[in-house]
Fold this protein.
Amino acid sequence: MFGTALIVFRETLEAALIIGVIAAATRGVPMRGRWLTGGVVLGLIGSALVAAGMERIAQVADGLGQEIFNASILGVAVLMLAWHNIWMASHGRAMAAEAKSLGGAIREGSRTLSVLLVVIAVAVLREGSETVLFLYGITLSGSSSVMQMVAGAMLGVAGGAAVGITLYKGLLRIPLKWFFTATSALVLLLAAGMAAQAARFLAQADLLPSLASPLWNLSAVLPNESAVGTLLHGLVGYDAQPAGIQVVFYVAVALAIAAGMRWVGNKTHAPQK
Amino acid sequence: MQKLFAAIVLGLAAGPLVVCAADVEVKLVIENHRFTPETVKVPAGQKVKLLIENRDATPEEFDSHALNREKVIPAKSTGSVFIGPLKAGSYPFVGEFNDKTAKGVVLAE
């Protein structure tokens, strides 16, 4: 049961961290609960569908369907996070800074909720489909009873959710003055990390060169499977042994989003000078 | 945003151009939640295609932090994973869904 719980925990954790960041970034936005829950529900339905169709997905494109599928949905999530951040830079943050209140930002924030729903659905779907396959395997092999499996899975999900909630509560403690800067920085790094993961899948399918694998090796200092490594991986895309192409994607996406935010930020400020 | 699109489009467009043929292929079998062979020798400095055949009735996930790879291999099917070019050394991997028994290592030399 604990073996099951541990694996389910690991799979849940990444999605829980992403949800924690997004929940914080949409703090105070009306109806956000409905949108965020909607994302989770859609992701869970998607998980079951993807798990059921995994054999078919895997056979597409000469056995590289899984990589292309994963890279594509990660790409969609990156675009959505980029859009959210740039939108907030042009509307939300400027208004919050000028009015010294959250009101304006909150109204603007509700416009990106539908976009963030997609991000949450993608996060849940990616981790969820693997969890479903894993649990299905346990059921088939009969290595533990269904009761034990369900108990283990629930324990794992609860553990993952607890970490996500802790992160969310921690983020809410950031003073309002820095809150937008902090959450948008986190969203930016989250997007860059997802882009790096997409690059990894494309290199795994040999659709991109890996360009030095690994480019550096920090596994002696901070291994991926350590608690801190796992957290940083989920939050900012930390990888102890990244391939060159992952670093290229990470930096390119981070710079592109930062440039986009700065560009629209300047534009909205310009007329007042 | 435009830059982001440009970066992604460029990245995707450049991809197929650099794919080179004549890779080394290495076969791996998963049976009874174990890998055969458990030590996979591959040439260092070369891209290698791992062909992983899962003969079990349950899905398995090939997972390696050292190789930076993860891929679900559905039951009774074969999946391929490209690795490297690797520096000489050993790179452990596991079958994440059965990580007590499904363990192995890629030796690049």
